Amino acid sequence: MQLASIGQLIAFRTLQLTGKNPTNVMISIGQPQKFPDGEDYYCPFQITGIGDEKINRCGGIDGIQALILALENIGILLTDSEEYKQGHLTWQGSGTGNLGFPHLDSVGMLTWL
User: Is position 38 within any domain?
Assistant: First the structure.
């Protein structure tokens, strides 16, 4: 299922990209919705300003699980980006690497980055 839109926007966050070409990175999260052919839900999201900028989605049994998994997936995508690894991605000017998204660390513990 390819998404053309995130649908109704329910939340967004602006991150700052520093370095040679400073700009903003936008994280947009859409309202969880039922899959068209089932009972489960998906939560659409998009990261613009870095990466491929495609609309992604995470599925869950209900809207809350879909939203939580989308937040975790955003954290993974951000920490895997070259911009983050090079220390150029910040939130509110924080130099600590804290972007305010949950992230599963290497041993499977949920932490906040």
Answer: yes
Per DSSP bridges, beta strands 89-90 and 9-17 are antiparallel
| Total domains, the chain | 1
Is residue 68 within 8 A of residue 76, CB to CB? The reply is: no
| Euclidean distance between the first and the last CA atom of the chain, given in angstroms as a whole number | 30
Residue by residue, pLDDT tens for the chain (113 residues) are: 788 899 999 999 999 998 888 899 999 999 999 999 889 999 999 999 998 999 999 999 999 999 999 999 999 999 899 999 999 999 987 766 788 888 666 445 555 44
78 in any annotated domain: yes
User: Please, are residues 31 and 10 in contact by the beta-carbon 8 Å criterion?
Assistant: yes
Does any domain span residue 69?
A: yes
Q: Does residue 32 form part of some domain?
A: yes
